[in-house]
Amino acid sequence: MTLPSGLQPRAPMTVPAFVVKQQITMMVNRYEILAANSDGSEGPMLAFAEQKRMKLKEEVVFTDPGRTRRLFSFKARQVLDVHAENDVLDEHGTVLGRFRKRFGASLLRSTWDLSAPGIEAVGRERRQSIAVLRRVWDVLPYVGEVWVPFVFHFDFVDTATGAPVLVSERQKAVRDRYTVTLPDPRLDFRVAASMAVALDALQSR
Fold first, then answer.
1. CB–CB of 156/175 below 8 Å?
2. CB contact at 8 A, 180 and 20
3. Fewest CB atoms within 10 Å of the CB: 61, 89, 123, 154?
4. How far apart are CA 100 and CA 76, in angstroms?
5. Which residues pair with 30 in a beta bridge?
């Protein structure tokens, strides 16, 4: 099929914007992924995700809101490796995309590579000053006794064109909450949701 000039092929599962909300428990990180309405309010839940801690290979599974059916997941290829590439898999285990953290570049400013059909993108923390401040705060004495809600934004752009692909913006709240927008309709929601959760779940790795 030939598309009209200027139009991009849409991903199999397209969601233009959604919200990620974190729930922290002793052994499991849980995330709610909800649709975002045009007025900024939260819509229905799209998926529920769990990250079990202390696993040799990082894996996060996304299920339906009732937690009865596996929808998609992402899983690291290597064991406990900061350079590990993560595959995003559909419910049948077919690879939808992949992402990895650039360890060296992330020492001062977190940087991620994201790949999906037709897309090669790189994502970085929006503000270098906030990135440095977070790292200084992490090594201060008595860390953890005072909680500071750093504004935590990521912008992913197409490496070929520089066009925006995914934007994740952390909201100022006690519990982590992110608003995620997908300017590029080629990016499958399942890949975008996996990347958005990984920005929280794997950020400290």
1. no
2. yes
3. 61
4. 9
5. 23, 50
Give residue 186's Cα distance to chain centre.
16
Q: Could you tell me the maximum CA-CA distance found in the chain, to the nearest angstrom?
A: 60
Question: Is the separation of the CB atoms in 176 and 109 below 8 Å?
Answer: no
Average pLDDT over residues 49-68: 85
Looking at residue 73, its amino acid is S
What the block records as the tokens of 11 is: 């991903």
Say if CB 85 and CB 77 are below 8 A apart: yes
Q: Are 114 and 166 in contact (CB under 8 A)?
A: yes
Structure tokens at 189: 């929601």
**b/e string for 59-78 if b means 16 or more Cβ within 10 A?**
ebbbbeeeeeeebbbbbbee
The model's pTM is 0.83
The answer to whether residue 93 scores a pLDDT higher than 60 is yes
List of domains in the chain:
18-201 (3.20.90.10)
**Cβ(44)–Cβ(66) below 8 Å:** no
Structure tokens at 70: 């596996």
Mean pLDDT, residues 31-42 taken together: 91
CA–CA dist 53, 50 (Å, integer): 10
pLDDT tens for each residue of 16-32: 999 999 887 777 889 99
